[in-house]
Design a protein that fits this description.
Chain lengths: ~250, ~325
Amino acid sequence: MKASTTNLNKRGYLYTGIGLVTVWGIVAIAYPAVVLPSPYETLLALLELSRTAQFWHSLGVTFWRLTAGFGLALVSGVLLGSLVGHKLVAYQLLRPAVLVVQAVPPVSWMLLAILWFGVGGGAQIVVVFLALFPIFFFHIAQAVRQLPTDLLEMAKVYETGWIKTIRAIYVPAMKPYWISALAITVGMGWKTIVMAEVISGQTGVGAVMNTSRIYLQTDEVMAWSFVVACLGVVSEAIVRKLSGGERHDPIR
Amino acid sequence: MTIWRSVCSLVVCMAVISGCASNAEQSVQQEEAIKVTVLTPKSPALVSTMLASTLNDEVVSMEVKTWDTIEQLLAVVQDGEIPFVIAPLNIGANAYAQGLPLQLVDVNTWGAMYLISLSPDVDELADLEGEAVYIPGRGGPPDLLTDYLLSKDQISEEVERVYAAVPEIMQLLASGEASHAVLPEPVLSGLRAQSDHLTEVLDYDAVWQQMFGGSLPQAGLFVQREWAAQHPEAVQAVHAKYTEAVARIEQDAAEAVQLSAELFGMPEEVLTQAMQRLPLQVMQASEARAEVEQYFSILLEASPDSIGGQLPDEGFYYQFE
């Protein structure tokens, strides 16, 4: 039964995919490639791009920046999140500040970060950090706050070793929050970093996209968008696979 | 009561009749003058465009709209509703190469680009060794031309290039983060008004004149090919308006400046200063072809994709009858 639903699901993706590409292909006939390149032209542009050294170099640079911003957000989000999860006063003090950080659009942060850190000073990393940090912060704070206190007290009374306590109580109780935070942030991270690089990037995927854009090479812009979308989806899938959580589908 | 009623209805009738009459008059006029819209970026050409739009004649009545991003420009060209657009020559040529039906009517923006420094230690190009120069847009004409000129002086390797958008560059210059930049007019005059020490290291137009004996063509008026074929008299009339507008600005820029300062978001005095530094000239595409091709060939050599991979053929240049 489970196998057949998964099968149907997979076929669903396939049919939807074919349908979307067909619609795209038909609409593209009516427009010049500079306005809407066809799926075929986009694929050609992608193949062409992937043969250049710049393609891989740009991906590398962007990936490095994403990793740095993501890592910073993860570490500080988890540390501060755990702290405020334990101390209600700290949570009440920090929450409004983090909400403000979250409410400011990433574009605004980008424009400000260029001024504060200069064009080559890692403004893109800062923006990724600011976009992802609140998500880790709130998820972890929430996870810590809902830890089963009775179980933890019992572990204390029975003097269970801390490794065992973490494995038996902390990990299972916090897991859904972890997975959710990671899955949201990896996908969002890719989009944010590329947006930041389009606004100001000497190097990286966004910078190359911007050059394609001013050279009216819309097929390349499309190809890059496709690559970034795939990377976002794939990294989210990897995170879920590693952490063992399925994507929540409200219909099922 | 009845008298009142008849008086009232009489008044209403007269109002309606006179309304109809004036409507009829208007529609006759409209049939005579073709309404055209010109889409212009917020570049120097906006000034002459604003003045040109106020010049009345029987052939066309002109309306002005502005564009900010290349996407807006492409959408308008694709849509075909607006017959005239002003665009950088490289973008026009690139769009033409990609199959968009644009033709260059005239070149109306020349030079207007400078490499400036706020540092008191920099007087000439050689002083920029080891320094970072901020350039608007990687791969655009400011980048390609700067690289070309730096290579001529064989210091291309020694000068660091940093790319950012014009508003960011202005802010970085203001904060002291940046001290050398390539900037177009009229933005540059805004900066000049605020800084006590500003050196023009390179005047691209002056250098161009020395090298090639003519001004550096930058932007021009483009028309949708099909529309132009149907309305040659309108193309002629719009071009004539520009020629007249530029002649008037050369005598006195005040009126044109007053019309456009608000759209630039800068004070009139600053824009007036900028106007003094802009070579004003409207040259028909067919006459400017040699200069335009000279310019394109340098872009083509530096980065073929910047103009669509080849020099545009003669179909790119609108032929006046």
